[in-house]
Amino acid sequence: MNRFSFASLGLIGIACIVAFGPHPDDVAKKKLPAKPTYAEHIAPILNDHCVTCHRPGEVAPFSLIGYENAKKWSAMVTQVTHSRLMPPWKAKEGYGEFMDENRLSVEELELIKRWDATGNAMGEKKKIPAPPVFTSEWALGKPDLIIQAAKPYRVSSEGTDEYRNFVIPTNFKEARYVVAMDVKPGNPRVVHHVIAFLDSKGRAAKLEAQNHDGQEGYVTFGGVGFAPDGALGGWAPGLQARKIPGGNAFRVEPGTSIVLQVHYNKSGKEETDQTRVGLYLAKEPVKQEMHLAWMFNILLAVPANEADHKVFFTYKVPRDITLWSVMPHMHLLGKSMKAWVERPDGKTVPLIHVDQWDFNWQLNYVLKSPIKIPGGSTVKIESVYDNSDKNPRNPSNPPKPVFVGEKTTDEMMLLIGAYTVDGQPARN
Ligand code: HEC
Question: What is the whole-number distance in angstroms between the Cα of residue 103 and the centre of ligand 1?
Fold first, then answer.
């Protein structure tokens, strides 16, 4: 799995100065129309940023296609876009750069606000752009292997969201290299997001047998119930399937099962889902193997009744690596997570800052350009937790002291990074 030893743990205060994007007040508002129209200003924004999810049959609870829908939701759209709840892209601007960034500019936010405040003008009907066309084809062509749970899963109509882990054997006779993964939700109305973990030691199958409830898979809260041997990546609506860059790949040993974790939303009626994962296998020698570093604070403790409990964690990088993606993970008390690298030469490199942590939107953030991290660097992580009774998500009422664990009432401080080891070619 990972070649790192678990890091030195410590409480280290670190001042970190970060440059953020322009403040809304600084926008040259004069260039924007006083009375924006749906046809020219709003429809293009919704098409670009929202309708991948907000269209009939998709995961979002209503459609934002067409003038009537946009007008009906205008006030709420203004509210949730300005609070940065939507679109659900949680990495703060100006701190690391990622693929598929879906974030509204300050100009777009201002147009949305003005359109709402000035009575939702439609503009010229013939200027309304057509909504984007979504194909149901595999974006990278036909996969070499398509895997899915043995039977469709029945998702109950109501209740809290569910994390269901489907255990799917790969049946590889020899080690294979996976160069890309794509996901086709069986029922996009309820499939919120998906993460594919690897288990080569039969632990997931054991958990499934122990927790058998008459259906495929087993339920967890966030994790899969053990430290997996790896992960192939994650998927959420709007994230593109793309090849692992640099000619690199994940090595999957024979006998490995894929643990397909599907986060289900409830739609108000009983639904079924059988999500498929397409795997693309290397046909040529692979350059390097992708590994995962689990930067995991096993000593995390969050005292009761603290609304702003700050925790620091440091992770020593023992050798030269290249980092390709990061995925922060916390539970319901998490408020924010910020991670950066301090190199031996004193330079600081920002990794990611999720300043409004939302347990429902856990994404794997693929770096726009990979980051070289020399051995001897330190990854520093700062998380903030709200364990007060003011936190509406606090699972314990009254609040109680919280420690590391996999249950709803436990917490986590984990950053998963996918990396290659510099100068180490794949075993092929
Ligand atoms: C990746 C999928 C996705 C994208 C992109 C997306 N949404 Fe959403 N949206 C959802 C889901 C799912 C919900 C239901 C609540 C949740 O799961 O967070 C939601 C809820 C909402 C709500 C209701 C919020 C509430 O409190 O009930 C509004 C309004 C909204 N979205 C507007 C937008 C707008 C405007 C955009 C584009 C700027 C957008 N969304 C982009 C998936 C998405």
Answer: 13
